[in-house]
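Reminder: ligand-aware prediction takes two inputs, not one.
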Amino acid sequence: MTARTAARPGEPRLLVRGGRRLSGQVAVSGAKNSALKLMAASLLASGTSVLHNVPDIQDVRTMQEVLEHLGAVVDFADGTMTVDTSAVQSHVAPYELVQRMRASIQIMGPLVARFGEARVAMPGGCNLGPRKIDIHLRGLADMGAKVRSDHGFVEVTAAKLHAIDMFLDYPSVGATESLLMAAVMAEGTTTLENVAREPEIVDLCKFMVSMGADITGAGSSTLKVNGVREMQPAEHTVLGDRIEAGTFLIAGAVTGGEIEVTGISPHVLDLFLSKLRSVGVQIAENTRSIKASGDPASYTTVDVATLPYPGFPTDLQAQMMVLLSIAGGVSVVTENVFENRFGFVDELIRLGADIRVDGNHAVVTGGRSLTGAIVRCPDLRAGAALAVAGLVAEGCTELREVYHIDRGYERFEEKLRGLGAEVERAGSGFDSCA
Ligand code: EPZ
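Here is what comes back for the chain with EPZ:
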């Protein structure tokens, strides 16, 4: 294995030894991309909301810090979180928290809805692209808010928000959530068209309806919100994480094992599962679980284009690229959601993949046998994909900058070991693959 710049002593790394078939059952955790928004939505009411099936991951801990910074009291243990917002008095999300996790900006809508003001550090870009929030801000301004930006902050103030009819330029997940949370107590009936339809949006709507909101159309492209005077705290169970489920299903497929993910309904992964079937992976579906198995030698090509839900999820693009790298034939992967989501391709090539990137297309020549190497996780989902690649690479793969994985996957290596993987976290000393 060629050495790279030595890891700093104590820097956490994952060591993955390839060649083991993964088999067994794994329960997915609650969805990161729902839990974070439910936590923000709890600000809409004064009192204590209770959330169950909350994943204990870094991003949830960061959002807990954001809420506590605002004055909320948060308790979180064994997957259950209580959020008491009765003493919230600050309306500022500071730079160091937003810079650590851009989803912190999701407190903007609820703070303006309940308190009439929010001051949020502008989220920087990230490895995936500029990550603009223009649709969020345009909608809030149309609802009567004054939007100013200075010194790297966005300040949104409004004596009272009023309903709007808005056609979103793009079905942005975050903008849909911001505008939904702003509209639930706005005067009048808001109609939002061309909204995101992700299952996590449906989960957020369910929670806010249980808080007293009047929302119709959840899961469709048009949401109607009749503003109510006040919201009440509520109790809710976070839906299963479909991206974690897809990650483990691909881990089973590439290692030629048989994996059943539980705590997830298959219909939230329809197109993804049909793409796995096209490759030659056997998929068995039950109401609350999905099983994947197959022989990697029999896998063939399939083209993939990421799109907003119900299209192929961009958060499973990297994991799919690993599967296509070992399947026979040539596949084309097109990334339509983010401007720059092929950052991990160079790392996958270090493991032996044959991929050529041209703009937002990646041409994957399959049939490759991967070999272990030191690789760097450029972002959360790419990190998980590189770990999956390590499971099938000959020898040992050392993943660096694994804090990205810790942001969104609960007990990642423990769950992989439970399926038979040889993976361990090396932090102390210089123990490495060598
Ligand atoms: C959410 O990000 C998820 N994050 C992402 O998951 C996911 O990849 C993405 O939705 C798409 O499904 C969370 O929920 C915390 P978007 P979000 O607004 O809300 C452009 C993961 O790994 N856009 O739908 O930021 C934007 O630049 C993460 O779990 C605007 O132009 O996604 C991007 O190109 C990664 N203006 C595209 O839309 C806006 O005002 C999609 O962004 C807003 C967005």
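The chain has two domains: 13-21+269-274+298-426, 32-237. Residues 32-33, 36, 103, 129-136, 170, 172-175, 314-315, 337-339, 380-381, 408 surround EPZ (CB under 6 Å). We will return to this case in the review session.
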